[in-house]
Amino acid sequence: MFKDLFHKRKYATVPSERERSDSQERPKRDIPEGLMNKCPKCGTIQFSKELEKNLKVCPSCGHHFRLSAWERIGMTLDDGRLSEFDADMISEDPLEFPGYAPKLETQKKSSGLKDAVVTGTGEIGGFPVVVAVMSFDFFSGSMGSVVGEKITRAIEQAHERRLPMIIFSTSGGARMQESILSLMQMAKTSAALAKFQSDGGLYISVMTDPTTGGVTASFASLGDYNLAEPGALIGFAGRIVIEQTIRQKLPDNFQTAEFNLQHGQLDRVVHRKDMKSTLTRVLDMHAPVKEETAHGV
Amino acid sequence: MASELPFEKPLGDLRRKIQELKGLSQDTGIDFTDEIARLEARCKQLEDEMYSELSPAQKMHLARHHQRPTSLDFIHDIFTDFLELHGDRLFADDLAIVGGLAKLNGVPVTVIGHQRGKDTKDNIARFFGSPHPEGFRKALRLMQQADKFKRPIITFIDTKGAYPGNTAEERGQSEAIARNLREMAMLGVPVVCVVIGEGGSGGALALGVGNRVLMLENAIYSVISPNGAASILWKDASKADQAAEAMKITAKDLLSFGIIEEIVPEPKGGAHRGQAEQSAFIKEAVWRHLQELSLLTPEQLVEDRYEKFRKIGRFTFAPSAPAVEGPQGREPQAGGDPQERLSGEAAVETRAAPVEAGAPEAGEASPSAAESARVH
Question: In terms of domains, do A55 and A114 share one?
Fold first, then answer.
């Protein structure tokens, strides 16, 4: 029929250069934020879902992304279950420090946390433990009165319940806005550990990126076992301050977990995928020995 | 003659004027007695006004005065038979901390302090009073020695902070400070600490876990130096004076927070204007506290120190919070305990919520996902 003569045939078309660049841009606009993730270390871009499946460790370079307290609890505790202590404890502004009160509010909103540590009890590999998990996304994980008090109470709970204590640290240091009260939290938490540890309590410290300042110079360094995640920044003074003091550039690996291991400050550097099993092994070593095992049966 | 600080200039001017007049009356024989008496009265009045109302920043400058007496000055004034002991037995002898045996009113004690230098050369040798790990470890060695031989411990705190250097980090600066905090908590002998100048951060606290902590009137004590705080908060280290106000670093502030037990008065114009008088004030206060503490058993001393630090901190509970005063009062094994159940339930809830909010997939992505849904 004539009709067929005028029918436009369909061909496969190759888009022009311009169209192509347009079409490449369009999906970029449409990607919801957070769908993709770029590794800050090697620049590799990957799906966030894939990254999460990989425990937020970059598949190409092994960079350990920072975790929020609840992400870590989800990965580390059996079934991600935690019976939380002092969930509603919040900071005051005892010094009436300029800007502190409003900053606390914005930190609460942005992080979904009430302060920089979550404490409670749960199980790891079937072993009941008391844990304190710090979160860098609240006020850079800084230690003020609330962090000090919650950690001290958690240690006292571990002591009372005769359970091992595990603290996952990440912190920019003491919280300046609470000045001397923050400083004294170092003494308070360390004194609580002194009581607990001298009475036979087991304390495992896990340092994650970054653990610095007053937290490193108190409970984080006092573990019966000190572990750290690969690449984590661990130190007392900041790199810039040190460079200004010694008037030299510091090597790239300065204050990394590996640097600390090399200088005898850590027992082990443990990859995130092995953290739970490593903790379980240490806990198992401290569990009461079963009779039949003891007799070598 | 003590060198004057900028805020002391009006007083200095007045004193110079008096000197000038005195000289003039000698040279010319003209009688200026009345004039001089008038100026001296004015000088006295100005002194009283100025030194009774010092601002935190002014105190900070007095606390850092280069002529302010150091630990060794006070040790030589207050104690007899001081025998300095050296070294941490691990690496080196850090001159930023001094310590040794001494007698206080005839009683053997261990005395330890941060030591600033007296001049540039001395300061370089002593790292300006900022200890390395070996300094903290020397201090701990001496404290544990005191514990063994049942000697009371007196520490003098005067440092800008632990030394921020690469070698200090390599040798475990954090661990050294942390260990001191923990081990000082366990000492079975009386520990009295005196902040004599600047108490800077962890490096100060590493000698500061005492049953009693005293502070000289113009001494300061804070988590970070006001200069450091200013550069972090306002990106401007020159705002240190402003930071000094905000950070509540004076003896009066710390007394009100319950962090120190007593303020030791200073001679008018600061410790450097009357070292002997200052030493006498410190000696009296330290001796009084040691006598009180000598009534306690080793276990009571540990408990007393624990309680002192245990109660430091200001916090509250969110309004929505159930009336749970923390886990202390809770029976761990009692499954039927309503509070225990409550905390368990709360745990499940709190677990669900933050995972949603925290995970980038759900939390960060969902707003923009909703946005793009709206666009389409």
Answer: no
List, as ranges, residues 289-308 from B with C-beta within 8 Å of A. Answer: 305-306
Q: Does B353 touch chain A (CB under 8 A)?
A: yes
Locate the chain A residue with the closest alpha carbon to B245: A97
B328 contacts in A (CB within 8 Å)? 153, 156
- Asked if the C-beta of B128 comes within 8 angstroms of chain A's C-beta atoms, the answer is no
CA angle B135, B201, A222 (to 5 degrees): 65
Residue A19 belongs to some domain of the structure: no
A201 and chain B in contact, CB less than 8 A: no
Does residue A24 form part of some domain?
Answer: no
pLDDT in tens, chain B (376 residues): 568 888 888 888 888 888 888 888 888 888 888 888 888 888 888 888 888 889 999 999 999 999 999 999 999 999 999 999 999 999 999 999 999 999 999 999 999 999 999 899 999 999 999 999 999 999 999 999 999 999 999 999 999 999 999 999 999 999 999 999 999 999 999 999 999 999 999 999 999 999 999 999 999 999 998 888 888 888 887 888 888 999 999 999 999 999 999 999 999 889 999 999 999 999 999 999 999 999 999 999 999 999 999 999 999 998 864 444 444 433 333 333 333 333 333 333 344 333 333 333 333 333 333 333 333 3
A151 and A44 housed in the same domain = no
Tell me the shortest Cα–Cα distance from B144 to chain A, in angstroms: 15
DSSP string, A77-102: SGGG--EEESTTEEE--TT--TTHHH
ipTM of the complex: 0.87
Contact B194, B286 (CB under 8 A): yes
Question: Coil, helix or strand for B216?
Answer: strand
In this structure, are A108 and A230 located in the same domain? yes
List all residues 6 or more positions away from A95 whose beta carbon is below 8 Å from its beta carbon: A177, A178, A179, A181, B246, B247, B248
Interface of B with A in 316-345 (CB under 8 A): 316-318, 320-322, 324, 326-328, 332, 343-344
Range of the domain at A180: 67-285
- Does A210 lie in the same domain as A130? yes
A55 and A139, same structural domain? no
- How big is the A-B interface in CB pairs under 8 Å? 277
With beta carbons less than 8 A apart as the criterion, state whether A180 and B249 touch.
yes
SS3 B197: strand
State the Cα–Cα distance between residues B111 and B283, nearest whole angstrom. 13
Parallel/antiparallel/unpaired status of strands A83-85 and A117-124: antiparallel
CB A31 within 8 A of CB B344: no
Residues of A within 8 A of B332 (CB-CB) are 157, 160-161
Domain membership flag for residue A270? yes
Q: Do A239 and A97 reside in the same domain of the chain?
A: yes
Are B355 and A37 in contact (CB < 8 Å)? Answer: no
Residue A218 distance to chain B (closest CA, Å)? 4
In a domain, A291, yes or no: no
CATH number of the domain within which A222 lies:
3.90.226.10
Is B185 within 8 Å of B305 (Cβ atoms)? yes
Positive or negative, the CA dihedral A153, A157, A158, A162 is positive
Verify whether the Cβ–Cβ distance A97 to B246 is below 8 Å.
Answer: yes
Domain count, chain A: 2
Place of tokens 């007695």: B33
